[in-house]
Amino acid sequence: MKGQEWYQADDIAQEYDEKRFSRGGQLIDRREKAAVLDALGPLEDQDVLEIACGTGRFTVMLAQEGANVVGLDISAAMLQQGRRKAKVADVSGTLEFLRGDAGRLPFPDDHFDTVVAMRFFHLADDPAAFLSEMKRVSRERIVFDTFNRFSTRSVYNWALPMGSRLYSKSEVSVLLAKNALELVDVEDDFLVPYGLYRAIPNAFASPIRTIDRAIGRLPLSDHLMSVSYWNVRL
């Protein structure tokens, strides 16, 4: 995985949410959470695994929606932040945080209803193998996102501390076919790159987001969007 040493540092974990999901980044956080909830539907009593759960943004949200959740991440510092969030949200009894490797998931076959992997595939050195492992432990579906090759993200990708693996739609389609996964739906979003939203106050980011979404509804604009949210079934 790319950037493991950087990602596992204590100071990175402490500043992670503030740097990415404050200011205009609140709009990114809101959209990503909506994408996950829209894909999953009702979650009451569902068993969900989140891969690369980081500071628990999605893990805690899924527990609040009634799911039994396991959040797995390679960074002990990130997991500690997640446990604090769970305690504040009073959902500690319905979720568990584990340190582990997404390439060798410590669970039996068909153990979860759903596997979620957000902000993960852009770091994967062997995406087909990771997807295969997620399929192994899932009974029903997998939800994940990818950053797109033909998008504004490609302009500044080289400057990111962890880099990014960028995907074309055809590459993801090949990954799904190799793992015999059925595409249920894919949503594309964010013509304007994430970095701009994070750099400006929410008051300025909101009108930009309105324009971004309007352009996103135009024909063929999906080919230029920065991110895709994938919902697939076994």
TrEMBL record:
Gene3D superfamilies: Vaccinia Virus protein VP39. Pfam families: Methyltransf_11. Signal peptide: none annotated. Residues 49-139 form the Methyltransferase type domain. GO terms for biological process: methylation. Keywords: Methyltransferase, Transferase. This is Class I SAM-dependent methyltransferase. It comes from Natronosalvus rutilus.
